[in-house]
Design a protein that fits this description.
The chain contains 6 helices and 25 strands. The protein is mainly β and about 475 residues long. It folds into 3 domains: about 100 residues, no CATH class; about 140 residues, Copper type II, ascorbate-dependent monooxygenase, N-terminal domain (Jelly Rolls, Sandwich), CATH 2.60.120.310; about 170 residues, Jelly Rolls. Strands 1, 3, 7, 8, 10, 11, 18, 21, 22 and 25 form a 10-stranded mixed sheet that branches. A 6-stranded antiparallel sheet has the order 12-13-15-23-19-20, with no helix packed on it. Helix 1 packs across helix 4. About 45% of the residues are buried.
Length: about 475
């Protein structure tokens, strides 16, 4: 294995953002799009009447001049040259970049906020328009311009970033923690948080923890930072939010907040990727945070579950294919459909929070470049009325490291999925450790490696993970 393939040193690894409500959401989260069967079939499909409304709902949040997408789809002149590409990418469900789709073994029953999936009717409309030569139609048929989508945290209560940046270099990944002081005079509650990486080419992910005791100050050097492979290394700290590629700011629903004690520090853990060994300018990733104006009715709590190295009782890493004599996390080279399963039988308390009728606000998946699919299911020990005994919480059949997000349910709190002590959560991950996996092939070539290697559990980019991310809400 290359030297930078670090090994995981702990059973439950903090890995990546679950809370961020991720990339390129549509402008109207409540708009499901056109109903099935309503595409214009008697008339020729045209851009202004039929296609432009779809682009407004599903695409223009990213595909605008200066947006994060590589080209604009704001006008007919923008869209016509791209019509064949639009068909190819939408039919393959690569675009819009929304990972949650039903799979043969995991069908989701609950709606999501900002669901970007194209309906079958929308797919047929785009395909018919392209097949007919992408006609413009009458500009008078165009819908009104879409309202601009809010970008970033509006009116942040405070912004913090390291005084001294970290210049990433070398061939080994680094995890660096930065101690940040928001100067909170009283207990406060986070409602929105945006992570703003300065050097995205080397920032693999960012996690933000609270440090109520100020212990991180003792770990930091004169620049206010320290190496923190394996976690922030502070007692009593909790995960607040984070960032992964494709993520957008965390925005909690009205009446929900994540508490920060008076005087608490924030510890920002940044995983820096060794991008081919090239040196980067110093990175000063920033945090923009908005606080609620009054104490919220419900608290939000995020837990990352998985990355077990072994089995403890009924929980942990489950036996799987290619294991020798006991359960082990090992993805052999040149194997395409290797699976690993992490199981959690929920305890009476999770990080100090009673596991009694917890409501699951959002869930997410996390792997690295070898990962290609993840599913999260729950089997309830005693299902309450309205809650199925078994349920698929999340299915991500086309995992893409560059487009990660947390999937928040578009439901009132009382209708959210429940989790109780004794319930069994299974996180099942599928890996493709072959050169036919394009993301892996690119990462190997960047690292000067010509063929797949055995992959183990770890934090380096060419190691792997199998994590589920869960955001719970509860009455304090």
């Amino acid at each position: 294995m290359p030297a930078h393939n670090l090994r995981a040193r702990f059973a439950l690894t903090v890995a990546s953002l679950a809370l961020a409500l991720a990339a390129c959401a549509g402008t109207d989260p409540g708009d499901p799009g056109p109903k099935e069967g309503t595409a214009a079939s008697a008339l020729a499909v045209t851009f202004h009447r039929d296609v432009e409304p779809i682009l407004q709902r599903r695409c223009q949040a990213c595909h605008t001049p200066g947006g994060i997408a590589p080209f604009s789809l704001l006008t007919y002149a923008d869209a016509k040259p791209m019509h064949e590409v639009m068909v190819e990418k939408t039919q393959a469900r690569i675009m819009p970049p929304w990972g949650a789709h039903d799979s043969d073994d995991c069908k989701m029953e609950r709606p999501f906020v900002d669901d970007m999936r194209l309906t079958d009717d929308e797919l047929r409309t785009i395909e018919a328009w392209s097949r007919d030569g992408a006609p413009e139609g009458d500009p008078k048929d165009a819908p009104p311009p879409a309202a601009p989508r809010a970008a970033g945290v509006t009116d942040p209560s405070f912004t913090v970033q390291p005084e001294v940046g970290f210049p990433m270099s070398g061939t080994e990944d680094r995890l660096r923690c930065f101690v940040l002081d928001p100067k909170l005079a009283a207990t406060s509650y986070v409602s929105e948080l945006e992570v703003v990486p300065e050097q995205k080419g080397v920032v693999h992910h960012v996690l933000v923890f609270s440090d109520p005791s100020g212990e991180s100050r003792k770990l930091a050097d004169a620049t206010g930072q320290y190496d923190c492979f394996g976690g922030a290394r502070v007692q009593g700290g909790t995960l607040v939010a984070g960032w992964v590629p494709g993520a957008e700011p965390m925005r909690l629903p009205e009446g929900v907040g994540t508490p920060l004690d008076a005087g608490a520090l924030l510890v920002m853990q940044v995983h820096y990727h060794a991008a081919g060994g090239a040196a980067s300018p110093p990175d000063r990733t920033a945090l923009r945070v908005k606080l609620t104006s009054s104490p919220p009715r419900l608290h939000a709590y995020t837990q990352l579950l998985g990355n077990f190295r072994g089995t403890l009782g009924d929980s942990g890493l489950m036996p799987g294919p290619n294991d020798a004599s006991k359960a082990e996390f090992l993805v052999p080279p040149n194997v395409k459909d290797h699976t690993e399963t992490m199981r959690v039988v929920m305890p009476p308390k999770l990080n100090g929070v009673p596991v009694t009728n917890l409501r699951l606000l959002a869930s997410g998946a996390h792997m690295h470049y070898v990962g290609v699919k993840e599913t999260i299911t729950i089997e309830r020990a005693a299902a309450a009325p309205g809650q199925p005994a078994k349920e698929c919480l999340l299915s991500v059949p086309r995992w893409d490291f560059d487009w990660q997000r947390s999937y928040r349910y578009a439901l009132d709190v009382d209708a959210l999925p429940t989790v109780n002590a004794g319930d069994r959560l299974d996180v099942r991950c599928t890996y493709d450790n072959t050169m036919g996996n394009p993301k892996l092939g690119r990462a190997l070539r960047e690292s000067g490696v010509s063929s797949p290697q055995p992959v183990v559990l770890g934090e380096a980019t060419l190691d792997e993970m199998c994590l589920g991310t869960f955001t719970f809400v509860y009455a304090p």
